[in-house]
Specification:
alpha/beta; Rossmann fold; 7-stranded mixed β-sheet; 4-stranded antiparallel β-sheet; 31% helix; globular; binds zinc ion
Length: 310
């Protein structure tokens, strides 16, 4: 994602000569156990918890991390972000519709949805197509404006600063590829659970570092992209984060996803700086027109659904 944003580098200096296996001062943000350095990626230390094996950025980030990462450069600057996020509208709207249809198995009829990290509201539009009433939250002002121009209610800011309680309680809160960017994911989930109706659902889509694709790529996996990505979950550590906040697991699965070729090229070119495998993948899509869509071949993206007790 956006590497041009300067993060807090206070700990990087302390890392000095990077030594995998060295203890770090920070505790695991999921289970609060001790952690050790796992690897250095793009000169950032990635730590691994000794107990739950959650991986996270070893160094703290600035308090405005989320707002700074999701600047216009993330949506239009290429790299690990998007060369033009707005080109994704059709694919994302379709994914919103898919999720709304999938959720039918777990609740009776549509309800009120809060989409956290809604960007331009394309996913939200897919949910609305299926009868949901939805509000989005998005820190990037340009994205909020794009959504509002189309009549989609996306509010500019973060969950922490917006008054979402007066519109709630929400029947479903979705976080699609958001949680790995949050400095303190457990605290963020706990905060969101307050807004959920009893029996309400939390939908999380995020990357799985235990997938075969992630393990095959090793440290060159595209999601090892600090400092925009701060956490590398496994299905177990995601479940632990949710159950710590009083939620119960309901269902989970792999996301079958389509990628726009232009976006794939941008991502692979960026990841290819660290990985020969990613460079080969980039060469394989290079001849294809940027406007085409191709099925994403990896098994590393998953969804999980959790429920607040009645
Ligand atoms: Zn842990």
């Amino acid at each position: 994602m956006n590497e041009k944003v300067p993060p807090s580098r206070s700990v990087e200096k302390d890392l000095g000569a990077f030594s995998p296996g060295a203890s770090i001062d920070r505790k695991c943000p999921i289970c609060k156990s001790d952690a050790r350095l796992w690897k250095s990626v793009r000169s950032y230390g990635i730590a691994e918890c000794e107990k739950c094996f959650h991986r996270f950025l070893a160094e703290p980030v600035a308090s405005n991390h989320v707002e700074s990462i999701y600047g216009d450069d993330y949506f239009f600057g290429g790299g690990a972000g998007y060369s033009n996020y707005l080109d994704q509208s059709g694919l994302l709207r379709g994914r919103g519709t898919e999720y709304a249809r999938r959720i039918k198995r777990y609740r009776n009829g549509p309800g009120k949805l809060l989409d956290v990290g809604a960007a331009a509201g394309f996913l939200l539009e897919g949910w609305i197509d299926e009868g949901w009433r939805g509000v989005g939250v998005e820190p990037n002002r340009s994205m909020c404006q794009h959504a509002r121009k189309r009549g989609i209610d996306v509010r500019c800011g973060t969950v922490e600063i917006l008054d979402l309680e007066s519109d709630g309680p929400w029947d479903l809160i979705s976080m699609v590829q958001v949680i790995s960017h949050l400095p303190e994911p457990v605290e963020s989930i706990r905060n969101l659970v307050r807004y959920l109706a009893p029996g309400g659902l939390l939908l999380v889509e995020t990357w799985d570092r235990m997938s075969w694709f992630a393990r095959l790529c090793g440290a060159g996996w595209h999601e090892y992209s600090p400092p925009s990505v701060l956490h590398w979950f496994t299905p177990k550590t995601l479940e632990l984060a949710a159950t710590t906040c009083g939620l119960r697991p309901v269902a989970s699965g792999k996301v079958l996803r389509w990628l726009q070729v232009g976006h794939a090229k941008s991502l692979l070119e960026h990841a290819g700086k660290e990985s020969a495998l990613m460079r080969m993948a980039h060469w394989s899509v290079a001849p294809l027109p940027g406007g085409w869509s191709v099925p994403y071949p990896g098994d590393d993206l998953r969804w999980a659904l959790f429920q607040k007790p009645n």
